[in-house]
Amino acid sequence: MGVTHDFPGGSVVTRRRDQEKQPELERLAALAGAASAEAAVAMEAEAPPVSGPPDLTAAAFFDVDNTMMMGASIFHFARGMAQRKFFTTGDLARFAFDQARFRLLGSESKEGIKRSRETGLSFIAGHSVEEMRAHGEEIYDELMADKIWSGTRALAQMHMDAGQRVWLVTATPVDLAAIIARRLGLTGALGTVLGSEDGVYTGNLVGDLLHGRAKAHAVRALAAREGLDLRRCTAYSDSVNDVPMLSVVGTAVAVNPDGELRDVARKRGWEIRDFRTGRKAAKIGVPSVLGAGALAGAIAVGLAYRKREAS
Fold first, then answer.
1. Model pLDDT, residue 91
2. Active-site residue among 65, 98, 175, 242?
């Protein structure tokens, strides 16, 4: 039997597994970013024109959860879909199991990582893209419209008035993120791309959730497609998880920051904007989506809400 030596940061075996997993995770993040940028470009044809004379090499990128909107957009959406009986307890159980398996075993093999992501949103398989979008439009009006931070919305408008395009960047499915962007009069959205065939969702992800480093990949990919000079671009977020995205642009702004991002912003000299009232450190709503596991949690809350409404 081999001997495992412990050291700060974990055992030799654990660290080796983590190192082996990183190239695959980076590949999936890059794939997610490229797919998101492609989707954003496709949707841009429907975008409203900027307010001022076009400034084609500068743009702004806004995180959604707790930055543009109070709470997590996927939570609001899950609540609305639960009201519409869109998914069942069995759907949630299968999704939660797949994600738990990845969290426990995903580092064991590349195939395990791939399989967990392919089944990560299996509960949506078989539903049409148009059905999802139609529900999303209704749910935005019912549960999201009054959750928009007016201060952050004003910042986005400032960029539009300067002739710059503005994109949302979020782990929320891009079809839903695009609805939020359109309702706010923005250029478009970078979001998680869900696989579909003939207008029907397969339940697979294209790459990975648009989270963490995947957001940075998406911004870079979109900049390359649109001819943006990232040194002239601005990014806004509330979460330390978005430091990769904030770091690829010339100007980074921490909006309603969590404690860790506030510390990073102070060290790096980034501007801090806080539109919350009362205790500034308190999160409003639920935490932003940190990964697929958090998505399961959001859906669980939606199911609980549905059960409460039925009782």
1. 61
2. 65
Residue 271's pLDDT is what? 97
pLDDT score of 111: 55
Strand order in the sheet with 165-173: 188-192, 165-173, 59-63, 234-237, 251-255, 271-273
Find the DSSP H helices in the chain.
12-44, 73-83, 89-105, 110-118, 129-139, 150-161, 174-183, 213-226, 243-247, 259-268, 292-310
Selected catalytic residue, list 6, 63, 141, 161: 63
Q: What is the pLDDT of residue 279?
A: 45
- Identify whether 161 is a catalytic site residue: no
How confident is the model at residue 244, as a pLDDT?
A: 97
65 is catalytic: yes
Eight-class DSSP state of 276: -
Burial class, 232, CB count within 10 angstroms (exposed 0-12 / middle 13-18 / buried 19+): middle
Show Cβ contacts of residue 232 under 8 Å, excluding neighbours closer than 6 positions.
57, 58, 250
Is 199 exposed, middle or buried, given 0-12, 13-18 or 19+ CB atoms closer than 10 A?
Answer: exposed
Ranges of residues in the chain with a pLDDT under 50 are 1-16, 18-19, 99, 102-103, 105-109, 113, 279-293
3-state helix, strand, coil in the chain (%, to 5): 55, 15, 30
